UniProtKB/TrEMBL annotation:
This is Glycosyl transferase family 2. Keywords: Transferase. It comes from the Bacteria. Residues 4-110 form the Glycosyltransferase 2-like domain. It holds the Pfam family Glycos_transf_2. One of its GO terms (molecular function) is hexosyltransferase activity. Gene3D superfamilies: Spore Coat Polysaccharide Biosynthesis Protein SpsA, Chain A.
Length: 309
């Protein structure tokens, strides 16, 4: 068994050493860490280089010639380079709890025993939300954001992602399915989750395995979906909700274009129904959303859907 951990970095000097140390302190030792720096302008490369030199058997450092343009593109590039039995993805500013790899691998083994290694498999976990100084803000991201780990069916995931990439492990079979990731994909973890749901299985570890750090430079942050301020903000940002919704249509259409010959008839019909929602009148759209359960999780999210469907 070999686990490859992929970490994309960009101007992460403030927290990168703490994250690397948390990986080095894992109870599971059979892993290799690959770090790809996206042309940082701070001390990130210098810090990582020192660790890579000190732990040559555990780390490889890649410095890109030119910026990839986003964290998504950096991760997709790394995914195309490695063919390990298991792949994990990692953010530069979090902290992995000591048993993170061990618990994730345990769940992966359980799924392999149940479904077989020849099936695309993905495991993700809950997280603790912390501030920049690692003070706990919430013991569960899933509760904090009003998410449901059971919403991992394909009809759910084409509408809303519940998989947080920095907790994720995928097997080699799933990796083989996602060599071509289109520009329409919203994030790498979302695309992987959709693919795993369509052709394999998704497993969830309820125990938090990561301290998910909230700070001013987060590319994607976590916000409490239960707070009044959040829900009011969501209702006031309906334009943003509309754009996000339209991106999910584009992503679903791209997925269908690539994989239609591999999907079941029922899956194809369902995805086509979702991508064609904007071509129907309001009542027909609501009918199809109810029929295929295309609803997002939570009151504010559903209000955004209703307003723009």
């Amino acid at each position: 068994m070999m686990i490859t951990i992929l970490m994309g970095t960009y101007n992460g000097a403030k927290f990168i050493a703490e994250q690397i140390e948390s990986i080095l302190s894992q109870t599971e030792k059979d892993w290799k860490l690959i770090i790809s720096d996206d042309c940082s302008t701070d001390a990130t490369a210098s810090i990582v280089s020192k660790y890579a030199e000190a732990y040559q058997d555990k780390m490889t450092f890649i410095v890109r010639d030119k910026p990839s343009g986003s964290a998504k593109n950096n991760f997709i590039h790394m995914l195309s380079l490695y063919e390990s039995e298991y792949i994990m993805t990692c953010d530069q500013d979090d902290v992995w709890l000591p048993t993170k790899i061990e618990l994730t691998m345990k769940k992966m083994r359980e799924m392999e025993d149940k479904f077989g290694k020849e099936k695309p498999l993905l495991v993700h976990t809950d997280l603790k939300i912390v501030d920049a100084n690692l003070k706990v803000m919430a013991d569960s991201m899933f509760e904090y954001q009003n998410l449901d780990s059971g919403c991992s069916a394909l009809n759910n995931l084409i509408v809303q992602n519940i998989v947080t990439g920095c907790t994720m492990m995928i097997n080699r079979c799933l990796l083989d399915w996602i060599r071509d990731v289109p520009e329409e994909s919203i994030m790498h973890d979302w695309w992987l989750a959709i693919t795993a749901s369509a052709f394999g299985h998704i497993g969830f570890v309820k125990e938090p395995t990561v301290l998910y750090r909230q700070h001013s430079n987060n590319e994607v942050g976590a916000k409490s979906a239960k707070s009044l301020s959040y829900n009011l903000q969501r209702l006031m940002e309906l334009r943003k909700s509309e754009l996000t919704l339209r991106k999910t249509y584009e992503q679903a259409k791209a997925f269908l274009d690539i994989y239609e010959q591999n999907l079941s008839v029922e899956q194809s019909v369902m995805i086509k129904a979702y991508t064609s929602l904007t071509t129907y009148g309001k009542l027909k759209r609501i009918y199809l959303i109810n029929k295929y359960d295309f609803w997002k999780i939570g009151f504010a999210r559903r209000c955004g859907q209703i307003f723009f469907i």
